[in-house]
Specification:
Blueprint lengths: L5 H11 L6 E6 L6 E5 L4 H4 L5 E6 L3 H9 L5 E7 L3 E3 L4 H5 L9 E3 H5 L5 E13 L4 E6 L8 E5 L2 E4 L4 E2 L7 H4 L6 H18 L6 H7 L1 E5 L3 H21 L8 E6 L10 H14 L2 E4 L1 E6 L3 E6 L5 E6 L2 E4 L3 E2 L2 H9 L8 E3 L11 E3 L4 E3 L8 H8 L7 E2 H6 L1 H7 L1 H9 L5 H9 L8 E2 L1 H7 L14 H16 L1 H6 L25 E6 L2 E6 L3 E5 H13 L4 H17 L7
Parallel strand pairs: 3-4, 3-10, 4-7, 10-21, 12-13, 12-18, 13-14, 20-22
Antiparallel strand pairs: 1-2, 5-6, 7-8, 8-9, 11-19, 15-16, 16-17, 23-24, 25-26, 26-27
Helix pairs in contact: 3-18, 7-8, 14-15, 16-17
Subcellular location: Mitochondrion inner membrane; Peroxisome
Protein name: NADH:ubiquinone reductase (non-electrogenic)
Catalytic activity: a quinone + NADH + H(+) = a quinol + NAD(+); a ubiquinone + NADH + H(+) = a ubiquinol + NAD(+)
Length: 576
Amino acid sequence: MRSFTFFERVSRAFRDHGSNFKLLLLCTTLSGGGVLAYGEAVGASEAAVPEKKKVVVLGTGWAGTSFLKNLNNPRYEVHVVSPRNYFAFTPLLPSVTCGTVEARSIVEPVRNIFRKKMVDIQFSEAECLKIDSANRKVYCRSNISNNEKEEFVVDYDYLIIAVGANVNTFNTPGVTENCHFLKEVEDAQKIRRTVIDCFERASLPSVSEEEKKRILHFAIVGGGPTGVEFAASLHDFVTEDLVNLYPGIKDLVKITLLEAGDHILSMFDKRITTFAEDKFRRDGIDVKTGSMVVKVSDKEISTKEMKNGGEITTIPYGMAVWSTGIGTRPFIKDFMSQIGQTNRRAIATDEWLRVESTSNVYALGDCATINQRKVMEDIAAIFKKADKDNSGTLTVKEFQEVLDDICERYPQVGLYLKSKQMHDLADLLKESKGDVEKESIELNIEELKTALSKVDSQMKFLPATAQVASQQGTYLAQCFNRMEECEKNPEGPIRFRGEGRHRFKPFRYKHLGQFAPLGGEQTAAQLPGDWVSIGHSSQWLWYSVYASKQVSWRTRALVVSDWTRRFIFGRDSSQI
């Protein structure tokens, strides 16, 4: 028998038993002792690599950025599409309009946010043109300025829509052509330049006194937080800085705040509303409530006075800022028509932020609204699930067993109990049955309907704020991080209309408070627990919160330095 060399034996053994070898070849050279190694997977189980799911994120606002910051699961391949390659801290936009804070201080490149993450994330500076939900495709167009804007298509397994909203003009004639908006950084910079332009034009010797008054009349439409903060910032800018630079026209400046409702800051506590209106009047800001804008020309605003029988009046102005309402983007309207959600202001989602009528599309932030399910719609299913012995009646014990799931699935139940100062549902059932011991209470389905008939009155829509969007982005990222785990071990409430449990707990918004800067280093704060604080102390709280909420140490340092510079040297009144 022919004797085999060492290398022939190794080669033959590898061919016969290749799947069991992890080390193909190990040889040591005689001269240098170098090692050559070649590795191969030992089996199919080790070689199999799970295919990454493609996640497309539209938008880099509060919701989209919060999602990207908190996504840690490397099993996703993420493609971010947005017309801006940065995140903007929008609550400070009014400060940018008056030079208190520089625009560069409140923006952070999105690539800085996710460049150190272990997740595969790609970014494209482009705008979304169309969503094809049936074929799971997103049609985009490059946003880079050139003669030919490239169009491309992105496929997805999961789509996350976080594009925010447009300004709602309510189809008022002339608004788009003649008014400034305050939604983007570019809007704030344009307002800042226009304010200085108005003062420079009014300083020209050829301009009449009447024309100077018109040019220096600043009109703000909308008495919400943005409109009020801008009016306060503009007043401080004028009285603390510009009057020193333009002393000859300082007495001609006028600021008017127009609000169609009865009060400004209507979403705040009445104590804040009253204080804000009184302070503005003391400061010389003309607050006109009950004034609905019906037309805007290049020099005049026409309003309908709701308190005077609908009388139409005209107001001459030099600059107008429109800050009221949010509207739907065109491609979102098209997407909503595809999924049967026409005639809506925003995309309807379930409590898990999943778009209704879809299985793999999520929407969050200002472009979406949660369609909280009503208890009375599921009352029969709830009764059936709780009635385990099929007796046709429910005891307190049976109800207690599903109590946590009911409160988690339908948050309005907990709100209703709190409003009635009840500890649990047993107190509610006792109220419907009268003076009966809790342990002996039994209800049929009609009695249960009566007991829960007013619960749905506590349902509330979430406000379109940065706080809501940020919490939604964080929640959805946590769901994606635990997707596989929760598929095997669901952690959500009982499926009253089906079997088993929901994969995740539904989204719950936690209100952390809200601020309304009123100028003069005074801020109104409405914090959890119905705690209201107004004054200089709240202003320092506002400083600390807004500094801490910056997305990076870079922007945090820049914002604080801008505030410090303003205290020492005043606001920047240049047009750059």
